[in-house]
Amino acid sequence: MVVSATTRPGAGLRRVFAGAAAILSAFLLAACEPTGGSQQASGPAIGPLINPGEPVRVALLAPGGSGSADLEWLSRSLKNAARMAAADAQGANIDLRVYDTGTSTAQAVAQANAAVDAGAQIIVGPLFAEGANAVGNAMRPRNVNVLTFSNNAEIAGGNVFILGNSFANVANRLVAFGARQGKRNIYVVAEDDIAGQLGGRAIETAIARNGGRLAGRSNHPVSISGIDAVTPQIVAAAQSGKVDAVFMTANNQAVLPYLTEKLAAAGVRSPVTQMMGLTRWDQPANRIGMPQLQEGWFAIPDQGLKSQFDARYRSAYGEQPHELASLAYDGVAAIASLVRSGKRNALTTTGLTQNAGFTGVGGVFRLRPDGTSERALAVATLRGNRLVILDPAPRGFGGGFGF
Fold first, then answer.
1. pLDDT greater than 60 at residue 65
2. Which residues, 6+ apart, have CB-to-CB distance to 170 below 8 Å?
């Protein structure tokens, strides 16, 4: 749980920053470390041709066996969600096999090779970017595609597709929405760690893509002193009359409450200067009542569809699924959809990147030829201590929604 500066000042908050950083690096930040380079898919299609009338062998690589309670819950959620998708695959026979990788890159590669030796035709997983990059390299000579749970676009391309919601996808959705509201002069605030710099780069790219103007940028260490030092610079820019919005990466969970509280105390808050963020501002739940976060913009999946999935999962397994469980469902369901349509090239890069996309747990999504994923997202805010949808998630990829 992240505790705000108002409830845990001083040394207590320093412990929160340290604790949040440790948890994040355990399974989220690690999924954002660059381990390769993005590349456009080119040349002949990668992946085996199949007989859609026969069972399709899918290998799921999950971080089971790590010994971490958080990762074991995540691993269990990924496995259960994948099994749900396989069971839902009416008209397609999905032979799902599960392999535990722990947190080891070497183990991920070994399990991927074991899966393909046993007949796997496509791999869903693993979680971490380093492992996914290594698995992709190992599977390329074997003509097998990898749908990883990572959100790191740096490793996407060739036979590796990222199912995770990328920084670029979120940034583009929010900047495009802001441009329609007249918020074109955007100031970027990013942590100085790897994830923060990748996020900041994604925001700057989205600003350029949507005809906005980069009004400046501040980088800060993930610490109280780092945020304290950079706050006056952000405040001066926001009050210059040349900034419409401040877009924060705030990847470390402890950063957002503290940074926005410092800015609000200096008179910088939404909606006069529109606050925007790459991460969800409604999670954890104790954020919803924070006054400094009210009226800020962030992006979320289609909550109606997500609620239906969560309810089905709880009914089947007796616990709440991890937030990333939906990625396993989406990956297996996308494969099943292509197989059900009778396509022999369902598991190839050509089949996987069909333009129409798929209906996922959190809305429509599609895999792109460069290995990234495009996901339809809603724009949300916190208003009166509750979640409010400002712009619903699109239900398809027409009407200029294309990324």
1. yes
2. 202, 278, 299, 377
